[in-house]
Design brief:
Number of helices: 8
Oligomer: single chain
Helix content: 10-25%
Radius of gyration: 25 Å
Length: 532
């Protein structure tokens, strides 16, 4: 069959780049192409395709290699690129009420050489489309063919932009779902709930939605931005892990939370297109094993305890299991082994010493931690502020019902986390942005883990990875395990709470199986990468 030249041109206009072993980055010429390709891909994704993440020039397609192969995914993307422009149903039309009272309204209008009233009329007079989301859960990047302005960002970004602020930057418009820093020019504000993790539809403006800003005419003004809601009413506040659910009973009272303890399960898969990271336990294997050893479902919520030092008292008879980092475990006054179920009588204490190897210990309670869920998960996302608040002294942790009996286990095979971590990586989408020797440097260097380690990422110290290209990279989809290289040249490995889009080139991606090992790296440890 002969392919028409127009179809061939459109197919050739899509460049497919590897994003590790579980994703493909489809790159097109411009944002218009992104919107069209994303619409075509979203019509009928094949089984095994897990996420579609549009960004400025790319659509990231994540897939499960156990269900669909890379070659099949790439062929599907190429076929979708042949779809007529605008393929797929139009997104819903959402009207957003706006008070045009932004702090930058007058200055922005002056920059564009028009009166403030004209800027308001133009902004409200066009239909916008959500090209992609990112930066924060529910933050939509809006574009319009009718919007002709290219607005420079603020030279000095604000350290605090209130929730509901409506801004413009470059060719985009958008509204801030929660209080964050930001450099967009603020022209208005809205009371619309842009992101509600407890709602059936959590994001008001999903990708491909059509948007019209509707002025609240009696309140149109060019004055200061409206005051933000009081802290207790702010968007994105997280309930305490101590809050009980209906079918749960008190299990543990926290006496000392350690350095940093959060509730974690296996996270929020499939939400990245809404700006929501996967989150969840960084060492998923450790949490799964701890749950199995107390008779829970593997996905039940437990505690992720950084650096140890955790102490709790049992409110009733309970079973617990500790896995992950090497810590001394004391139950009801007796030293016990990790990786084994332990009975704690009512009033007895569970104590974890300081981590002597590895960074994160996991404590499972029979029945699972029954903290409130957000977007179907009890995981705490520290970057987005989703999920139960970090655990504090005095919190009472509730547990639900177990899935099965406590297994009889004499010993469970496990190894002490090493100080030299061997980490497998696959090629990233921007390896060609680096100098010819960058890959060899990445693989040959025993990288040192810096003191900047958290749930968002691991920063590594060592030689700079030289770039062959130094231009700006448009924002693109990210994955846990992506190895970004900022301008200083030292790699940063994104973890489960990392952003879903980013603008630094990704030279390589840690394999999914190797991600758990990175949960246990601590400052001063060494990391060696090996290519698969």
């Amino acid at each position: 069959m002969v392919t028409p030249s127009g179809d061939a041109d459109r197919a050739a206009s899509v460049t497919l780049r590897p994003m590790g072993e579980r994703a493909v980055l489809a790159e097109v010429a411009d944002l218009t192409g992104v919107v069209a390709l994303h619409a075509a891909l979203a019509v009928a994704p094949p089984a095994g395709v897990e996420e579609l993440i549009p960004a400025a020039r790319t659509v990231l397609v994540a897939f499960d290699p156990r269900r669909i192969g890379r070659a099949a995914v790439e062929e599907w993307i190429r076929r979708a690129a042949l779809s007529p422009a605008g393929a797929g149903p139009p997104g819903p039309l959402v009207e957003v009420p706006v008070r045009y009272d932004g702090a930058d309204l007058d200055e922005t209008a002056a920059l564009l050489g028009i009166p403030a009233g004209d800027l308001v009329a133009r902004h409200a007079g066009v239909e916008w489309t959500v090209a992609f989301t990112g930066f924060a859960p529910g933050f939509a990047y809006l574009v319009s063919d009718e919007w002709r302005h290219d607005v420079p960002r603020l030279a000095q970004p604000r350290t605090r932009v209130p929730a509901g602020a409506v801004g413009i930057a470059g060719a985009f418009s958008g509204a801030y779902p929660r209080e964050t820093p930001g450099g967009w020019r603020l022209i208005g504000s809205t009371d619309a709930v842009l992101f509600d993790p407890d709602a059936a539809t959590p994001v008001l403006l999903p990708p491909r939605a059509r948007v019209r800003f509707v002025p609240e005419r009696e309140r149109v003004a060019a004055g200061p931005l409206a005051a933000p809601p009081p802290p207790e009413a702010s968007t994105g506040s997280a309930p305490s892990a101590a809050v009980a659910t209906a079918d749960a009973r008190p299990a543990l009272r926290v006496l000392h939370p350690g350095a940093f303890t959060t509730v974690q399960d296996l996270g929020r898969a499939g939400r990245a297109a809404l700006g929501v990271a996967r989150s969840g336990a960084l060492d998923r294997r450790a949490l799964r094993v701890a749950n199995r050893l107390v008779g829970n479902d593997e996905a039940a919520a437990g505690l992720e305890i950084a650096l140890g030092g955790f102490v709790a008292r049992a409110e009733r008879d309970a079973w617990v299991c500790v896995t992950g980092a090497l810590v001394d475990v004391v139950v009801d006054g007796r030293a016990v082994d990790a990786y084994a179920p332990r009975f704690v009588p009512a009033g007895g204490e569970v104590r974890l010493g300081s981590a002597r190897a590895g960074l994160r210990a996991y404590l499972a309670v029979r029945g699972g931690i029954a903290a409130p869920a957000a977007l179907g998960s009890r995981a705490r996302d520290v970057l987005a502020g989703l999920g139960p608040a970090p655990v504090h002294a005095g919190d009472v942790l509730h547990a639900g019902s177990a899935a099965s009996a406590v297994p009889v286990v004499d010993a469970f095979p496990w190894t002490v986390p090493p100080s030299l971590h061997q980490v497998a990586v696959a090629e990233g989408p921007r390896a060609d942005w680096f100098a010819a020797d960058a890959w060899a440097t990445l693989l040959d260097t025993p990288w040192s883990v810096s003191s900047d380690v958290d749930r968002v990422g691991v920063r590594l110290d060592g030689p700079a990875l030289d770039r062959g290209r130094h231009d700006e990279l448009p924002s693109q989809g990210m994955r846990p395990g992506a190895i970004q290289v900022p301008p200083h040249g030292r790699p940063v490995v994104l973890l489960a709470d990392g952003p879903v889009t980013g603008g630094y080139p990704v030279i390589a991606v840690v394999t999914d199986a190797a991600l758990d090992a990175l949960a246990q790296v601590r400052p001063g440890d060494r990391v060696r990468f090996r290519r698969v």
